[in-house]
Design brief:
By secondary structure, the chain is of the alpha+beta class. The chain is built from 9 helices and 7 strands; from the N terminus they run ααββββαβαββααααα. Strands 1, 2, 3, 4, 5, 6 and 7 form a 7-stranded antiparallel β-sheet that branches. Helix 6 packs across helix 8, helix 6 packs across helix 9 and helix 7 packs across helix 8. The chain is globular.
Length: 226
Amino acid sequence: MNIDWEKELLTIRQSDSINEGLFEMIKIFHKFFPCDMIQLYNYSSFDYTIRGIYSYEPPNLQSISHVHHSMVINEHVHRAIIQNEVRFFNDNKFQLSLGNQFILSDTIHNMLLVPLSINGVTVGYLTGVNVRFKVTSDKLMEIQSFSDSCINALNLSSKVNTTQFTDKEIIVMEYISNGYTTKEISRFINISESTVKYFIKNVMLKTDSKNRTEAVTKLFRLKLIQ
């Protein structure tokens, strides 16, 4: 097993932001597990929605944040995501799940799926389209190890002061992590919806997050919410 990627993943800890860390992770993945195109998505296990983050078709990196919708996905692919299982699809099982976010000049022959999970909960996944290496059971096990190591490398707990969050902020983010809307949360804890949004905005600022999903992910890593 090639462990050189473990050394390179250590550099992610030096990233100034989670977005910079994610880009470095994608580049490292491509270096050791080359594919024609690699895409990174955020995934919600509560309502099965996905949000695009990056698409990397070397040497070009572009945002795919416009991809944000309820997941209508092939059952085989979805099962691999929720079971946190690296899978390689090279038949119609994966072809059925492809959307128009996959844009390549060549025919798509296969897809590698790499879930990313925190405490057993899948929070995102990588897809590698048209792999350019021999896929074996040992290689899939190595990629699973890569996925696990990525989560550790992206852990930003040392960059966030865990005492800076108020009890109300944590309570609100607990509800957010379970898929409740701001209107529902305001009713549950008897505060205005604008106050709920204020708490969410505060947590986003304190965690240097672009949106509430990223903030929830960081609070999971800090073990401040379950």
